[in-house]
Amino acid sequence: MDIKKINKEIESIDDELLCLFEKRMELVKKAGQYKKKQLLPIRDKEQERKTLYSLCQKTHPDLSEYVRSLFLDVFEMGSGYQSTLYNNDSVVKRLIENAIQNTREDFPSRATVACQGIEGAYSQAACDKMFSPADITYFNNFEGVFGAVDNGLCKYGILPLENSNAGSVNEVYDLMSLYRFYIVRSVKLPITHTLLAAHDVKLSEIKEVFSHEQAIRQCSQFLKSLNGIKITECENTATAAKQAADSGRKDVAVISSLDCAELYGLSVLSYNIRNTDNNYTRFICISKEPEIYPGSRKTSLMLTLSHKPGALYNILAKFNAHGINLNKLESRPISGQDFEFMFYFDIDTPVISENLKQILAGIEQETDMFSYLGTYQEL
Question: Which pTM value belongs to this model?
Answer without folding.
Answer: 0.80
